[in-house]
Amino acid sequence: MRPDYYQLLDVAENATQEDIKLAYRSQAKRYHPDRNPGDTSAEERFILIAEAYRTLGDADARYQYDGWLEKQRRYSSAPELASMPHHARVSVRHAYARREERRRRREERSTYRPRRRTPQGILHRRAAKLSPIHYLVFYFICLAIIVPWFFRYLNADAAPSDNKAPQHHLPPGVSPLDPETQRINLARFTERILTDAHKGDPAAQYRYGTMLFHGYGGMPQNREAAIVWWRKAAEQGFRPAQLALKSVKAP
């Protein structure tokens, strides 16, 4: 197994090439065989120092050595990785990285609690994104709806103007027309109903019979004639006339 060349040269792992060269010269002078005659350990140390300088003095060789050194340290912290194939070791390494990431996130969550996303907060954030143009359009629409309604409310109880005719509120069943006009209108209405009844309209026949039965509008009451008109409408299948005949028990 290759030794730690940084420890042999007594330099840091981020040392520059100049630092490595100075450390090599210092260690080579100290363990040179000429200064340590007959010392086999000093000779072996001198060979290792020369090998370390050849490795760390070259940029490409140093890069490969740093990768190998990192791998050995990882194997020493997790011995089970050494017996695994390469793809398994990569997966385990990623698993360790994910575990550390999860641990870091748990620590961050333990110190920082995000604010809950309440509906009020969401509306506040959305409202903050609106521009002044949106507010102006909103207020203009509100005014266009409220102002006309407000003026109609003010004018609802106002007194009628002089150019308008006063409105007379009459009780139910009372007509504003004079009696002569009412008589003429009633005569025209009765004549129109009688004309339609003679033409064979069942609805007009039933209506005219009802007017005769009750003496509508001052007409002379004639129940026998009313039953005759109801019977004509009932023969044509007019349901109200049939019910009227049953109510008076007419044959």
Q: Can you put this structure into words, describing what you see?
A:
By secondary structure, this protein is mostly helical. Helices cover 69% and strands 0% of the residues. It is built from 11 helices and no strands. Helix 2 (17-31) packs antiparallel against helix 3 (40-56). The protein is rod-shaped. The N and C termini lie far apart (132 Å).
CATH architecture term of one domain? Orthogonal Bundle
Low-confidence stretches: none
Could you tell me the strand content as a percent range? under 5%
Shape field: rod-shaped
Q: In CATH's first tier, which class of one domain applies?
A: Mainly Alpha
Structural category: mainly alpha
The DSSP helix count reads 11
**Termini separation (Å)?**
132 Å
Q: By CATH's scheme, which homologous superfamily of one domain applies?
A: DnaJ domain
CATH topology of one domain: Helix Hairpins
Please summarize the sheet with the most strands: none
Q: Compute the gyration radius: what is it? A: 58 Å
